[in-house]
C-alpha cells in the first residue's frame, strides 16, 4: 500500500530555498557556479549588443533610403484642406460669433487674426523670401539654389490682404458688421451677405506659390492667403462655405463631405 508523501513545513521549504540559492556543498549560486554565471552573463551581454547593433544598422539603412525632403506623414486624400481664421469652434462647426457692443468680444477675434498674420509681416517676408517670382506660373524648382541648400519661396505679405490686412483697420471690421475672415481658398457662397470684397483682388492665389517642396527644402515658406470682408445684412448672420476651385481638386466626396472645403457660421451680435 502506497504511503502518502510527507507534508513539509514552511520552515523546511524556506530551508530548501536557501539551499537552492547558495549550496555550500558544491559552491553553487542558484544552481550554477560563479564561473558559469560569468560565462552566461557575457553571453547575454554579447547577444544583446549584437541585436542592438543589427537593429541600429537596419534603422540607419532605412533612414538613408528616405528623402529628408519628403514629409514623414502623408494623407491618402489628394485635395488640400481648407481653414478659416478666426478659428473659433462651437460644437462640431466653426462659429465666428462676436458682439459689436462688447470690446472684449470683438477684440478676441482681431487678436486671433493679428497672431495668425505675424509670419506675413512685410519685414520678415522680405528678409527670408526676397525672390522675384513670376506671377501666373507654377514655380517649379529642380535644384536647391537658395542659401543653405534650400529652395526659394515666394513672398506673401500682410499688406497684400488690403483692407483685411489689419494695417489700416486693426479691428479687422469686428467692431462693426463688416468683419474680415482669412482663408486659404478662393470662393464663398450663401446668403445674408450684401457684399463681399476679396483680397488680393478676385480672391485668387497665384500659381507661383506652388508647388510646395516641404519644410526642409523651403523653411521660409508661408501659405498664400485670401481674405474676405463681408457686409452682413438682415439678422447679421450668415452661413459661409469656402471651397477649392480647381479642375484637379475634389470637393464633392461622399465619404468626406469636408474635403476641399470649409463651412462656418458668421454672426454679429449687438
Automatic annotation (TrEMBL):
By its UniProt entry, which InterPro entries does this protein fall under?
Na/K_ATPase_sub_beta, Na/K_ATPase_sub_beta_sf
| Bilayer-spanning residue ranges | 42-63
Q: Which GO terms describe its molecular function?
A: ATPase activator activity
State where it is primarily located. membrane
Which spans of this chain does the record mark as coiled coil?
Answer: none
What membrane topology is annotated for this entry?
Answer: Single-pass type II membrane protein
Q: Where is the signal peptide?
A: none
Question: Can you cite a GO biological process for this protein?
Answer: potassium ion import across plasma membrane
Which GO CC terms are listed, alphabetically? apical plasma membrane; sodium:potassium-exchanging ATPase complex
Pfam families linked: Na_K-ATPase (PF00287)
Localization of this protein: Apical cell membrane; Membrane
- What is the similarity comment for this entry? Belongs to the X(+)/potassium ATPases subunit beta family.
Function in brief? The beta subunit of the gastric H(+)/K(+) ATPase pump which transports H(+) ions in exchange for K(+) ions across the apical membrane of parietal cells. Plays a structural and regulatory role in the assembly and membrane targeting of a functionally active pump. Within a transport cycle, the transfer of a H(+) ion across the membrane is coupled to ATP hydrolysis and is associated with a transient phosphorylation of the alpha subunit that shifts the pump conformation from inward-facing (E1) to outward-facing state (E2).
Q: What is this protein called?
A: Sodium/potassium-transporting ATPase subunit beta
Organism of derivation: Mastacembelus armatus
Amino acid at each position: 500500500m502506497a504511503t502518502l508523501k510527507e507534508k513539509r513545513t514552511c520552515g523546511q521549504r524556506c530551508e530548501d530555498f536557501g539551499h537552492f540559492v547558495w549550496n555550500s556543498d558544491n559552491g553553487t549560486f542558484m544552481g550554477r557556479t560563479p564561473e558559469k554565471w560569468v560565462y552566461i552573463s557575457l553571453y547575454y551581454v554579447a547577444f544583446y549588443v549584437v541585436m542592438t547593433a543589427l537593429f541600429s544598422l537596419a534603422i540607419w539603412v532605412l533612414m538613408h533610403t528616405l528623402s529628408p525632403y519628403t514629409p514623414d506623414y502623408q494623407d491618402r486624400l489628394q485635395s488640400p484642406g481648407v481653414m478659416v481664421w478666426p478659428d473659433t469652434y462651437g460644437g462640431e462647426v466653426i462659429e465666428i460669433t462676436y458682439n459689436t457692443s462688447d470690446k472684449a468680444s470683438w477684440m478676441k477675434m482681431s487678436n486671433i487674426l493679428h497672431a495668425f498674420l505675424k509670419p506675413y509681416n512685410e519685414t520678415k517676408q522680405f528678409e527670408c523670401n526676397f525672390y522675384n517670382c513670376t506671377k501666373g506660373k507654377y514655380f517649379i524648382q529642380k535644384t536647391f539654389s537658395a542659401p543653405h541648400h534650400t529652395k526659394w519661396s515666394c513672398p506673401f505679405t500682410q499688406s497684400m490682404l488690403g483692407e483685411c490686412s489689419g494695417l489700416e483697420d486693426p479691428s479687422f471690421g469686428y467692431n462693426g458688421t463688416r468683419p474680415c475672415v482669412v482663408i486659404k481658398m478662393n470662393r464663398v457662397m450663401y446668403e445674408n451677405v450684401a457684399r463681399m470684397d476679396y483680397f488680393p483682388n478676385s480672391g485668387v492665389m497665384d500659381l507661383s506659390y506652388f508647388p510646395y517642396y516641404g519644410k526642409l527644402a523651403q523653411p521660409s515658406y508661408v501659405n498664400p492667403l485670401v481674405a474676405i470682408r463681408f457686409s452682413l445684412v438682415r439678422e447679421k448672420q450668415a452661413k459661409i462655405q469656402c471651397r477649392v476651385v480647381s479642375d484637379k481638386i475634389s470637393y464633392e466626396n461622399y465619404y468626406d463631405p469636408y474635403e476641399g472645403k470649409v463651412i462656418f457660421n458668421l454672426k454679429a451680435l449687438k
